[in-house]
Specification:
By secondary structure, the protein is mainly α. It has helices spanning 2-34, 41-62, 66-79, 91-113. It has one domain (2-113).
Length: 116
């Protein structure tokens, strides 16, 4: 029973992290198409986090450990640094936070279920 639970948690976590990375990539494409000067620390951070998210998703799939699930959590939370402080938030910022936390839940579950 425990093995089935950990397999389900693993699959959900890997797909959630991969989905988050793909959504970040789509957001980056939109950012680059609309902004006249797109390169900055925020776009660089988003690009790095999206690439690391894909790599960590593959790593979590191949080597399902608690440490890899926690690495995915750290990457997703680190990407939120690009939205700035709450005084600068717009509706897009609230949407990014909501989607990130929604997709973060399977990773938190995997971190609790998987063994070290």
């Amino acid at each position: 029973m425990e093995d089935q639970t950990s397999n389900k948690a693993l699959t959900s976590a890997a797909l959630s992290l991969l989905g988050w990375s793909m959504l970040s990539a789509v957001a980056l494409v939109a950012w680059f198409s609309r902004n006249p000067a797109p390169w900055g620390w925020k776009s660089l951070l988003a690009t790095i986090c999206a690439v690391l998210g894909v790599l960590t998703s593959m790593l979590l799939w191949k080597v399902p450990t608690r440490a890899n699930a926690i690495l995915g959590i750290v990457i997703m939370l680190a990407s939120l640094a690009r939205i700035g402080g709450p005084s600068e938030w717009t509706w897009v910022s609230f949407t990014l936070v909501a989607i990130t936390f929604l997709l973060l839940m399977p990773l938190v579950n995997a971190a609790m279920v998987l063994r070290s």
